Every structure is written in structure tokens, then in C-alpha cells.
Amino acid sequence: MKPKGKLIVIEGVDGSGKQTQTELLYKRLIENGQKVMLISYPRYDKASSAMVKLYLSGAFGEDPGDVSPYIASTFYTADRYASYKEDYEKFLMDGGIVLADRYTTANMVHQAGKIKDSVEREEFLAWLWDYEFNIFGLPIPDRVFFLNIPPEINEKLMRNRDNKITGKAGKDIHEKSSEHLRDSYESALALVEEYDWTEIRCIKQGELRSIDNIHEEIWNEINIKERKTNA
Questions:
Q1: Could you tell me the residue range of the domain that residue 191 belongs to?
Q2: Local confidence band at 164 (pLDDT 50, 70, 90 cut-offs)
Q3: Which helix (H) or strand (E) covers residue 190, if one does?
């Protein structure tokens, strides 16, 4: 059964401002009288993220490439499936708007970025789509916004950020690997074209745009799409 509501995803590599932009959009939609739910992945406070936390902490290898993209993807899928069933399935089916800070799209960005061969990469993406949306039955996003910030700037923005798992200083294996961040970024740029994501360029004339300026572009894009849909 197709959901009556909409699933909107804010995506980007580490340090791109996904959480900030998702929260701003959530508040804006609430102010406009919409029925909205905000979710963020991974859900580090839930048991379903246990394998994600082990992976990111380096339990299976200190380099992201030590773990197959197929295997790593299953860790995140389990958490999303639990979230769908526990948190928002009925809400989405009944017509609510779900805003997701990361989603299946994060597996597409981070795990596909590990694969250099273009044919193998496409095989992985086809497998992942079938695995999450057909086998697990997770909803396909209605809109995906990709926050485009080059990795060299992302690394500067993350320099003093606490680890999201522990709340203490120190980065997970994705965040501390410059190679992984670059590969994920290149993967994301290709995905924008392949999957018709909406790209939000967060750098203008060499400078990082303001949080509010980026938010206004996302808000306007949503309204433009809604007007076209209702026309």
C-alpha cells in the first residue's frame, strides 16, 4: 500500500549540516500547520543500532574499507526497519510528513563510495534498492536533498565535534578517514544525477552560505514541487 504521506530526506556527507537543516525544516512545517515527524539515523540510543555502533567504533576494522559495503549496509538497514515499524509507519500511511536526517541514501553515499569499479558499484546500488525497498519494504523517499559541501571544508567543520556515539572527543571511522569522506562525496555527486536528488550547493563564491540561506532554498524547493504537484 502506498503511503498517503511524504518522506523527505536531508542527505550529505559527515559535517554537512544535515541535522541543523532537518530541524529547521521541521520547525517551519510545524509553524505552517503540517503534521510532521522528525527522525534521525542511526538511532544510537536504540538496541537496533548496536551493529552500527560496533562498525563505526572500529570493532570490525579501523578503516571503513575493511568491511564490505554489503555487510555494513545490513547494519544500518536493521535500524531503519526497526524505526519504520516502531516510530512512523502508521503516521506516514495516514498522511503525515516524515523528515529524515539520513536514510537508505546514506548507505548509497557511504557504502557505494567504497566501490571503485563502476559496474560493481551499479550492481551494489541495485542490490541495495531491492534489499531495503523490496525485501524490507521500507518506503521510498519522495524527495532527497543533498547538501553539497566539499570534503575539505567538511573536515574543518568537524574538527572539534564530539563523537555522536560516545558524546566525547574523537571521531568514528568514517569521520576520521579523509579518503572515505572524499569517496563518499564523489559517490554522492553521481547519485544526485542518477536518482534525481535535489542538490543544495552550500558554498557560494568560495564562502559557506549561512544556515538560514540554505534553509530558505530547501523551503522554496519544497513549495515549488508542491505547486507543480497540485497544478
A1: 6-230
A2: low
A3: helix 178-194
